[in-house]
Design brief:
The structure is a single chain. This protein is mainly α. It has seven helices and no strands. Helix 2 packs across helix 3, helix 2 runs antiparallel to helix 4 and helix 5 packs antiparallel against helix 6. It is elongated.
Amino acid sequence: MKLSPSLDRTIRFNHPLTMDVFYAYTYSTAAWFGIQAVPLMISPKLIITALSTEARKATVLEEYLCRSLAFTLLTLAILTVLLTGTIPLSSSLSESEITADPSDPKAPYAVPTLTVTATFHALTAFYSYMQYTRHGQIGFALSEIGSGFLASMGCWCLVFGTEKGRISKRTGADKRTSGWPFKNEEADRKKGRKSL
């Protein structure tokens, strides 16, 4: 049984689980950036007071830097969603789903954007961990958890979502799977092998 080229491409690049995780990562990254940006933009004094060791009034420079960081985070959120192709920029509705394949013309910057954002999340998680161990403030722990989760999700998408894989044209299964440490008794029975 030979699959049509379009169906074969769908099985290889648009595996539902991989693309669902890719979309979830893209939207989660944008949401995480937005969650961090909103308090920085609305009330930088609150953030500065919460993270400082002594109570003092925020300077104009600190407020400016907080709001600049908020605008930067919002810009990164928008760029992440647009450059990964999660929101299609074409007017045609008949195009197929966006893939994480580097040769996909609908989202040529999906993998580089995924790489940069996953690296950003990993560095932010590491920095937040270092600040939490040094100061012990819960804000750093929350940042560590959120960024660490997104870094691991981004790495998962990079490892499993960007390769063509070795998919059998006959069965549609991945050829790299093995029976270790569990035995595949059904396959052994069909091939006439006796299981030990």
